[in-house]
Amino acid sequence: MSLFKARDWWSTVLGEKEEFDQGSLCVADVDNSGSGQDKIIVGSYMGYLRIFNPHPVKPGDEVQPEDLLLEVQLREPILQVEVGKFVSGTEGLHLAVLHCRKLCVYAVSGTLGNVEHGNQYQIKLMYEHNLQRTACNMTYGPFGGVKGRDLICIQSMDGMLMLFEQESYAFGRFLPGFLLPGPLTYSSRTDSFITVSSCRQVESYKYQVLAFATDAGERQETEQQKHSSGKRLAVDWVLNIGEQALDICVVSFDQAVSSVFVLGERNFFCLKDNGQIRFMKKLEYSPSCFIPYCSVKEGTINTLVGNHNKILNVYQDVTLKWAAQLPHVPVSVKVANLQDLQGAIVTLSDDGHLQCSYLGTDPSVFQAPRVESREMNYEEYDTEMKKLQKIIKGATITQDILPRSEKERDLIVTAEVSPDLDAESQAIDSEVKAEAVPSVTVKITIQSRVTARKPNLAVCVQAPLAVTCNQFVFDDLEPDSSETVDLCVFLKGNCLPSELEGNCFVSYDIATGIPKVAQCNFRLPLRLICFPAQPSKAANHKLTIDTNKPPVSFLTIFPDFADVTEEDQANVLGFWFLTGSKTTLLASKTSQRYRIQSDQLEDLWLITKELTLRLEEHFKKENCKDFACSFSGSIPLQEYFELIDRHFELRLNAEKFQELLSARAVQFRAIERRLLTRFKDKTPAPLQHLDTLLEGTFREV
């Protein structure tokens, strides 16, 4: 543990139950203000994009609302955010946002505000690319030595590098010997892409070699491709580092040579442009992130390395210069120039703790005041004490049930889920093959204390769940008025959702023109996706949950599934999902354990989560504050990887099917043109050739 702490200059917590990772943080002058001050851009896996312009905060004060320039939900998980010259015809900076199957480039701009909240910022979509493969990460730079613009390279989960020349797709190439994606960066000095493969070696590929290599139409080379005019993709240089890499970065400063930094699991390496090692440092801890930055000493480079012990270490080459304690484990770290603070350290944790800090210690500026001798006026003190006691007593009596901050909100949205399923199901266009697909009604109420202009309600549930209507637009709400809507939720896709929670968002403007958002969450019943069934004695996959309290009867915590007339259901229950699979839940009679078992690994999650939630609610009602659940078994990684393999096999088969249909469609149009030309004035008897072609298509399918 470090003796010193990183000095908190500005900090905030982002969202609720959101997740962040290495690519979620970026710092740049994204709005092209020209002030030299960086903005902080953060994207989460929940799809929220936020842009901050931090201002110094006094100790104990809260973050000012105007520090948040923009917050928008893009409805798709954000894997990475980067800022560069991504739009043709201009050298202004634009924001690139990488989703799983999409790349979007936005322009960020602000308009001068006329209210107390200051300027208003918005993003405009300049262009987007729909990806044919699931993305992992991306890098950018002046590929091929272009001037005044940046190109983007995206690495897919199956090892393909997809290159985009701004608004157009250039080409794609598969990395040889690929197994799992690793960190990716670009070196403008050598015009090369550098990555770390699953073989635990650093690999460098020239852009020109990628451009002239054989096209990545197929993962495996065919005989025709081996003899085609294109060249096979060859690596420029390789260095075996003997461990997996967490991140990779290329730096080039005036006072130091260009270097490639690689952060491993137990070491960090500094390499020359040709792959030779300049130096390496063995770490005595487990690192989480790093960032090299400019050093004041000639010929050296400083590196910030965060670790899982909440320590931020500062190295000058291999020498440890400083260590500071952080309040969280950073997953990403950047160095930014902010208002009144050049070289601020920006850190982000996986649960959304964003902090701007600096190193060193604060000098003590406290001076003891001069003591003035004077006589005590007891009558004056007694009067002041009675006045304060009266204020305290009045505040205690008039305290409301609701928290002050909750009651004083301009608009409140609440969601009430019906305790029973709909008597007549409202499910529409469901792909579920069950005989009956139930639905449940959710009643949403909007209460406004002020005039709310153009309120817009959006309701989101986790796919494959769906709602009968997810958008509602209302007329202006007057003060102390309310609106209520009913909607139904049902299972639309023939698979299970990852959670049974929904969200409501209401966007509106108040009288001063300030846009605001109110939101709430709701929890859906388990009966929406399954119904009671006979338990199974045997199963392929089993999961045991340990608790610190005696087992609770299922008649108590699962009254909607257990039958009180059946005594054996106090310790065992069966759940039959609408998708056709079955899961069994058992409670031990002699120990404090519960077991969930099923023939399919993916079916264990929902019942496990529902069990823990209901146990926590039960013991909370019993005023038990120390209840805890734990899992002491081995994590079923092998079964998990097999499940992923089956998923990708199905996807590859679907892609092959689409390619086959596309090829047949081309043949069909060609034959159609020839037939119309040849038999323009005759009866089209040779259409039997067309029937033969179609029959062959379905035979291959």
TrEMBL record:
Residues 634-701 form the PTHB1 hairpin domain. This is PTHB1 protein. One of its GO terms (cellular component) is BBSome. Residues 1-363 form the PTHB1 N-terminal domain. Residues 525-632 form the PTHB1 platform domain. It holds the Pfam family PTHB1_GAE. Residues 435-522 form the PTHB1 GAE domain. It comes from Piaya cayana. The gene is Bbs9. It comes from the Eukaryota. GO terms for biological process: cilium assembly.
